[in-house]
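Annex B.
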Amino acid sequence: MTTTHGRYHEVYARWKADPIGFWAEAARQIDWIKPAEKVFDPTSGPYGRWFTGALCNTCYNAVDRHVQGRGGQAAIIYDSPVTGTKRTISYAELQQEVATLAAVLQDMGVAKGDRVVLYMPMIPEAAIGMLACARIGAIHSVVFGGFAPKELATRIDDATPKVILSASCGVEGSRIIPYKPLLDEAITLSTAKPEACLIIQRPQGECSLVEGRDRDWKDEVAKAKASGRKAECVPVAATDPLYVLYTSGTTGKPKGVVRDNGGHMVALKWTMDHFFGVQPGEVFWAASDVGWVVGHSYIVYGPLLHGATAILYEGKPVGTPDAGAYWRVIAEHGVVTLFTAPTAFRAIKKEDPNAELLKGHDLSRFRALFLAGERADPDTVQWAERILKVPVIDHWWQTETGWPVAGNPMGLGLLPVKYGSPTVPMPGYVLEVVDEGGKPVPANTMGSIVIRLPLPPGCLPTLWHADERFRQSYLDPFPGTYNTSDAGYLDEDGYVWVMGRTDDIINVAGHRLSTGGMEEVLASHPAVAECAVIGIKDSLKGEVPCGFVVLKSGVTKKAADVEAELVALVREKIGPVAAFRLAVTVARLPKTRSGKILRGTMKKIADGDEWSMPATIDDPVILEEIGDVLRNRGVAS
Ligand code: COA
Ligand code: AMP
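Propionyl-CoA synthetase: predicted structure tokens.
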């Protein structure tokens, strides 16, 4: 692949020499109601806050300010092969829709600082709902549709929303998934009850409404339109939260990642041009879901803040209708940049290894593919390069950071590619790799990857109502830094290699899940004495969970029946997104003499990787037993 040496080193050095000046300059791309008194205030928040004293509105910058000049341009193109629907919404129409829905929310009593939970499929109303909250200074919290009622209830209890926005159903491939019964159950389970719910009735499957609580979205919007009601943009502090997005922590209790208004706009706007190399007016497609951070940053806010056109795709990479779906969307809408998870490309490659379905699609405007969310395996990257003949860019970030920590910056000129590495840190981030004692390790040595404080604009300033948990999780492990909980190394050229997590988070099809949360569910089964969940290699989803359980003595139920119940229980409590399909009964779990379960060694056995007998093991025979059980299940070789 040809590469050019661009401006990356110069820009990174400029940022490092004067971070305040760098972000002050980037902030000029945003319209402020009142400019910041301080670009960065190290005295507020757990590690400081960006753009303190400034007033702004994210919806204004994402929608209203484009109406003059690009009012007729498509802001959002909704493409839904699963419902056979396409809809183009111009910036002028988007302003109308958002301002109307914002007025409906105000009529329902939602005001600045109130929380609004969204439990929505991939329909334009999801983005309109998020922007309507931003418009009136309400804080949205989107919950991914693949989560079960109990997970939704946990998030409702933490966010205590005044109103919930939802839909009658989602469409997953050829299946209709009723969302409303899941929402009703979640509200029954939760302690914090919303005052009202606004429900979109989808023609694919309507639902009943709870009298006195639920309102019909389309009726309310129609009434507001008839009376000409529209909400103006409400000024908020740059440091006020725009949203809270829950992500998996090490326990079953998810972490509420807070995103502010000011720093978030500055960072995302900067990335659209300098990182993704996209210009206003161009078509940008993040094939993810609004329930994930990628959806927040690059389906909704990034492209719209930049005056680009965002694609909102309701479908899968394969099966809707086939593995050529992505090529059809790119060609039809003139997409210049696609961003998705490697797993999507593994799915396409599996179905159509020779990319026959690419033939006949005009991809002449397509410039780059960006992959993130999980480790991009070199095979998949090289396959995508071969078939698409454009740069394929692995980049690394987290829900917490909100935008790429490291990558190959298309907008600054690409650096040479090293397959398996997401290249170099972006301006804003100084990466270090440290040992268990927090001491930096030499190049090419594995350790914990940390980011020097302060984090740049756009990264989480704290966790929702949990400053102490924020400090304990991220700042205390290695003082002066933010702990990414990723393990890896920096090489002699400063490229970062992200090899895996240091905690019990796993990545299943690009979806972040907690094995600790799954263990809590397994342990709640009356027949289970002990359990351990690990992520094992999967050729499609990257990793899938595998649960090992020891049954209580005296349990007479067949092991296979308990295993089937456990699979059903995880689906019921966490949701289908957990993709938990393998529960394995074992006689005992391998432990160290101090009682710690040897999850790492079990993973190596399951993955068929080389492993050595840990010196501290209590009883070496147990590992052989585990290997035998897995071989019998066809898991380990
Ligand atoms: N609402 C309800 N259910 C959902 C859902 C949603 N929004 N999203 C997923 N699910 C369900 C799926 O239907 C599936 O259910 P099943 O067990 O009944 O089949 C389950 O959750 C697991 O979903 P997923 O892991 O996505 O598997 P899949 O087999 O449906 O699709 C891929 C596999 C690879 C095609 C898909 O995961 C994909 O496109 N991933 C890449 C893009 C992406 O979204 N990345 C995330 C962050 S960038
Ligand atoms: P999420 O918060 O869902 O975005 O997941 C973040 C985690 O996904 C990171 O901490 C990494 O473990 C993993 N991840 C994301 N992108 C990459 C990448 N490009 N390479 C390796 N791991 C990645």
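Residues 247, 293, 372-376, 394-396, 398-399, 422, 484, 486, 498, 501, 507, 512 surround adenosine monophosphate (ligand 2) (CB under 6 Å). The domain at 8-315+395-488 is CATH 3.40.50.12780 (Rossmann fold). Further annotation is deferred to the next reporting cycle.
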